[in-house]
Amino acid sequence: MDRNVKIMKDYEGKSIVLINDVRFKAKNREDWDEVENFLKEYVGKFYEIEESAEKVYISRDFPDEYASSNSRLALKGAVAKAKANASQGIPELIQIANNVEYSENVKEKHSKNAKLGWYRYDVRFALPVYDDKSGKMIRRNIYGARMLVRHDEDGKKYLYDLLAIKKETSSPLE
Questions:
Q1: What are the pLDDT digits (tens) for 61-73?
Q2: Taking Cα atoms as reference points, which of 149, 39, 23 lies closest to residue 94?
Q3: The 3-state secondary structure of the chain, one letter per residue
Q4: What is the pLDDT of residues 101-110, one digit of tens each?
Q5: Is residue 173 part of a domain?
Q6: Is residue 174 part of a domain?
Q7: How far apart are CA 27 and CA 81, in angstroms?
Q8: d(CA 137, CA 151)
Q9: What span, in angstroms and rounded, lies between the C-alpha atoms of 173 and 139?
Q10: What is the domain extent for residue 74?
Q11: Helices 77-86 and 29-39: crossing angle, nearest 10°?
């Protein structure tokens, strides 16, 4: 798996995942098939949240949920492109996850795979923006999102999706 990703601190000391390649354009369905195939390389692995030392596993259902969920289908333009490219930084996003919020499962369809509830974490990532003429990177746009983790009846936590992706209005990283 070829990835050009690293974690850094912003000027306020908050962690942010720098994704240095725009691999997915997210203009059509084929791009999302590529995203889903890319995410399959994470299946069976786990990553640790630095703040709490909790392990978050990647299950077989994650790639399809990430690429085909109702929340993803509603995305358009730059935010869809941001979610597609955020897939490259999944291990690092899990690592920097913070500000956890718990909620009980209320949907029957998740009665087994989220029997012990849901966890939402804040994550941030940055993507490069290129000049159309020169092709050179001119800045990075920063995005905030909520990482959704389900707590399975087997006692393990599994990454489920990346939700509520929003471009931050602060100054982009230069």
A1: 999 988 886 666 5
A2: 149
A3: CCCCEEEEECCCCCEEEEECCCCCCCCCHHHHHHHHHHHHHHCCCEEECCCCCCEEECCCCHHHHHHHCHHHHCCCHHHHHHHHHHHHHHHHHHHHCEEEEEECCCCHHHCCCCCCCEEEEEEEEEEEEECCCCCCEEEEEEEEEEEEEEECCCCCEEEEEEEEEEECCCCCEC
A4: 997 766 665 5
A5: no
A6: no
A7: 8
A8: 40
A9: 6
A10: 5-167
A11: 20
User: 96 lies in a domain?
Assistant: yes
Task: Report the alpha-carbon distance of residue 159 to residue 95 in Å, rounded.
Answer: 12
Token reading at 139? 């800045």
Q: Tokens 């006692």: give the residue.
A: 155
172 domain-assigned:
no
Please report which confidence band the pLDDT of residue 4 belongs to, taking 50, 70 and 90 as the band edges. Answer: confident
Q: Total domain count for the chain?
A: 1
pLDDT digits (tens, 9 = 90+) for 146-155: 999 999 888 8
Rg (CA), the chain: 16
**What is the distance between the alpha carbons of residues 78 and 152, in angstroms, rounded to a whole number?**
33
* C-alpha angle 102-104-105 in degrees, rounded to nearest 5: 125
Buried b (16+ CB within 10 A) or exposed e, 92-111: bbbbbbeeeeeeebeeeeee
